[in-house]
Amino acid sequence: MLEQINSNPLVSCIIIFFNAQKETFFEEAIESIFAQTYENWELLLADDGSTDESTAIALRCAQKYPDRVRYVEHEGHQNRGMSATRNLGIRHAKGEYIALLDADDIWLPQKLEQQVAILVAYPEAGMVYGSTQMWYGWTGNPEDAKRDRGRGLGVKPDTLVKPPTLLKLFLKGTAETPGTCSILMRQKLVKDVGGFEQSFRGMFEDQAFFYKVSLNATVYIESGCWDRYRQHSNSSCYVAQALGQYNSLKPNSAHLIFLTWLEKYLREQGCQDTEIWQALNKALWPYQHPRIFYLLQWFQDVGQHLTRSIKKFVKLIFIHKELTSI
Q1: What pLDDT is recorded for position 102?
Q2: In what order do the strands lie in the sheet with 219-221?
Q3: What does each C-alpha distance from 60 to 99, 210, 298 come to in angstroms?
Q4: Is the pLDDT confidence value at 2 over 50?
Q5: Model pLDDT for residues 231-256, shown as the tens digit of each residue
Q6: How many whole angstroms separate alpha carbon 308 and alpha carbon 203?
Q7: Residue 180 to residue 132: CA distance in whole angstroms
Q8: Torsion angle of C-alpha atoms 43, 99, 177, 192, degrees rounded to 10
């Protein structure tokens, strides 16, 4: 595939950040871009109104590498949220392709080389992504490393997936949405779908964008895994969980806001796919009928507890019989 590249299209790499200098994560993210085997890239460091040392780090990097790195910020150094800051970086991007990297994550060295080759080879694909490593092992603790896993693709890898197949899989939970740092996309696609939804300042900002893409564009799902999504207590997802705004295991306000937005977006797009609406209505049902949902959950929990108790009781009887027969 690499032989098919006749040119080296420019890739605009965008790191958004807000008070990112809690560890050395920000510097590690930047270093992972400089370590890429693909050389034709630019880096945009998009500041969401930081008040710590991370602004100075970004400015120093831009001053040291003026031909490759640019610093951008909102007017008046405002804090406007993740979606608006991604759009800020995208507006300043000069590349044919766009890649996103969050300030606490890293790319592996061949990320851009491999994914550029795929988009060149498959011009019908607007975006490419592979599995993301959910990275607990960054701590160096062997016990944490045992928790590392890849995100579920939900389809056979190294495949072109036409719309709206991925949207259905995402809604049903059969596939996980891409890790933001795993994607490479054409700038034209980003503009065609209207960029990131700026009403999402944090949680579900990525999913809103990927749902728009999966409704409108062909996507290539690759078998490679080129990014590591660092799991730590200061990430936006963990902070939202700590504040009670998000819980992946039960209904929560952030998820309802996303589903309500999705319902409106699908209507605006004139979506008439019955399977999509059935999946969305199923996802909305716990919010529309909360008392029934929690009652059913209670019965399910009681049933599981009774099943475990019965299994233990049967096992004890069996052991008793074994002992009395000796």
Answers
A1: 96
A2: 69-73, 41-47, 11-17, 97-100, 184-186, 127-129, 219-221, 159-161
A3: 22, 33, 56
A4: no
A5: 987 777 766 667 676 677 678 999 99
A6: 36
A7: 9
A8: 120
Cα separations in angstroms, 13 against 41, 185, 296: 7, 11, 47
SS3 track for 202-241: CCCHHHHHHHHHHHHCCEEECCCCCEEEECCCCCHHHHHH
- H helix and E strand count, the chain: 12, 12
Question: According to the model, what pLDDT value does residue 232 have?
Answer: 84
How far is the C-alpha of 58 from the C-alpha of 64, rounded, in Å?
Answer: 10
How far apart, in whole angstroms, are the C-alpha atoms of residue 301 and residue 305? 6
Q: Which residues of 133-153 are buried (b: 16+ CB within 10 A; e: fewer)?
A: bbbbbbeeeeeeeeeeeebeb
- CA 87 to chain centroid, in Å, comes to 16
Sign of CA dihedral 239, 244, 248, 253: negative
Least confident range from 19-28, 50-59, 84-93, 202-211: namely 19-28
- The three-state secondary structure class of 164 is coil
Show the tokens assigned to 89: 């970086």
Q: Which two tokens stand for residue 22?
A: 């809690």
Q: Are strands 11-17 and 69-73 parallel, antiparallel or unpaired?
A: unpaired
Report the length, in residues, of the chain: 326
Q: Strands 227-230 and 106-107, how do they pair? A: antiparallel
- CA 74 to CA 11: how far, in whole Å? 22
Distance between first and last Cα of the chain: 69
- Is the CB of residue 48 less than 8 Å from the CB of residue 16? yes
Give me the residues paired with residue 135 across strands.
230
User: What whole-number distance in Å separates Cα of residue 81 and Cα of residue 200?
Assistant: 7
